[in-house]
Design a protein that fits this description.
This protein is mainly α. The chain has a single domain, classed as ADP-ribosylation/Crystallin J1 (ADP-ribosylglycohydrolase fold). It is 62% helix and 0% strand. It starts with a helix and ends with a helix.
């Protein structure tokens, strides 16, 4: 989960100023947390408290209303009677990583991932993106190899994970759909050497940098098993304490199970 937040914070600089290189500072004066962090924490909070996911997303979203939400999500936050709006955007995929850490069977992971998506992203592609990321985190956490993760996600969700970053990068640009950003984020993880490398590679595609790095970072943390101390320190410096308190409680919960 902290790996996902790290991807968001590090990638935040490149959402509006995309890059095609992995050679950049991890943190700068423009680094910040965005909606990816807020909503990932909301999902973790919902798991800890047994709260309905839509309620937690609204509560945390309203607590941090200027975090870079899309227009449709912001309208949903402000609505008196919120309804799903059929989104296939990658917002469902970027917030779901806690599910892969918290649940212990494939069936439960897929069911809970769908529940995190449907309050807003009830389009089949929105649900699929959330389930794919949550399952990748779960498989990585439980010892699957990269090839096993590639095969499982490709077979179940029909994502093409056979491409290379070098093939994708030249023509790739900003893309918010699950179907055109989740597979690419996963390939960044699959080609990575460690968590930092996964984040750098996701950003280097020149797309939706914070969200793609959030997705890749969450899977990478589950696979490699830790967040480097320098990255954790940078995140804790930039993310509000009330959000980090939920993160710390979530880690304690996953260890105690």
């Amino acid at each position: 989960m902290l790996g996902a937040i790290a991807g968001d914070v590090i990638g935040s600089v490149f959402e509006a100023w995309p890059t095609k290189t992995t050679d950049f500072p991890l943190f700068s004066e423009r680094s910040r947390f965005t909606d990816d962090t807020v909503l990932t924490v909301a999902v973790a909070h919902a798991i800890l408290e047994g709260e309905e996911y839509g309620s937690a997303l609204r509560n945390f979203g309203r607590r941090y209303p200027y975090s870079g939400y899309g227009g449709s999500f912001y309208d949903w936050l402000e609505s008196e009677e919120p309804e799903p709006y059929g989104s296939w955007g990658n917002g469902s995929a970027m917030r779901v990583s806690p599910v892969g850490f918290a649940f212990d069977t494939v069936e439960d992971v897929l069911e809970e991932a769908e529940k995190t998506a449907v309050p807003t992203h009830n389009h089949p592609e929105g649900i699929k993106g959330a389930q794919a990321v949550a399952l990748a985190v779960f498989l990585a956490r439980t010892g699957s190899s990269k090839e096993a993760i590639r095969e499982s996600i490709s077979r179940r969700f029909d994502y093409d994970l056979t491409r290379s970053l070098d093939d994708i990068r030249p023509e790739y640009s900003f893309e918010i759909s699950c179907q055109k950003s989740v597979p690419e984020s996963m390939i960044a993880f699959l080609e990575s050497e460690d968590l930092e490398d996964a984040i750098r590679k996701a950003i280097s595609l020149g797309g939706d940098g914070d969200t793609m790095a959030c997705i890749a970072g969450g899977i990478a943390e589950a696979f490699y098993g830790e967040v480097p101390a320098n990255i954790e320190k940078g995140v804790r410096r930039l993310v509000p304490q009330d959000l980090m308190d939920v993160v710390d409680r979530f880690y304690a919960f996953t260890v105690e199970r």
